[in-house]
Design brief:
By secondary structure, the protein is of the alpha+beta class. It folds into two domains: 107 residues, no CATH class; 47 residues, no CATH class. Helix content is 21%, strand content 40%. It contains four helices and ten strands, in the order E-E-E-E-E-E-E-E-E-E-H-H-H-H. The strands form three sheets. Strands 3, 4, 6, 9 and 10 form a five-stranded antiparallel β-sheet that branches. Strand 1 and strand 2 form a beta hairpin. The protein is elongated, with a radius of gyration of 27 Å. The chain starts with a strand and ends with a helix.
């Protein structure tokens, strides 16, 4: 079961349990309702008509996206302008798709736990991330003597072997 909704001038294909990033949306108590439903899939490949269904979601996160640099330039005129922009967004988890008297809800198993960069870093233990500095030092020295070393190390090795 999926639906195609319109939000913020864009169209999204959503299913119960999906998390989508839409343009900044106003939420009532953490809930968002999408009434502009363009299509809904039914059983056996049936497609619903626009406006027949509704999609409900809950706000997971609000924030601003990555910075986009906008550079204006006119050649030979000494004109340069650099501006940055960060687009605000709202991350919404789709909880329910209601269509033709039926309601399809996301189960608790479908809801992934919210991960942050800090929690991902905490999951990797120091032992799993790599060796300690003492164990890594001999490997680094061995690497410099092989093909992967710096240019100066390569020159010294070539000079010692009598090659130029």
């Amino acid at each position: 079961m999926f639906a195609v909704i319109r939000a913020g001038g864009k169209q999204y294909r959503v299913a119960p349990g999906d998390v989508i990033k839409i343009e900044k949306a106003i939420a009532d108590n953490g809930r968002v309702e999408f009434t502009d439903v363009l299509a809904v899939s039914g059983s056996e490949g049936q497609i619903g008509r626009p406006g027949d269904g509704r999609v409900l979601g809950e706000v997971v996160e609000e924030g601003r996206g990555d910075k986009v640099l906008v550079f204006h330039y006119k050649r030979k005129k000494q004109y340069k302008r650099l501006r940055g922009h960060r687009q605000p967004f709202t991350a919404v988890r789709i909880t329910e798709i209601a269509f033709d008297g039926q309601s399809f809800k996301a189960s608790e198993e479908q809801k992934p736990a919210k991960k942050t960069r800090r929690s991902e870093a905490a999951e990797v233990s120091p032992e799993a991330a790599g060796e300690t500095e003492v164990a890594a030092a001999p490997k680094k020295a061995a690497r410099n003597k092989t093909a992967g070393g710096s240019a100066a190390a390569k020159k010294r090795a070539a000079k010692k072997s009598g090659k130029k």
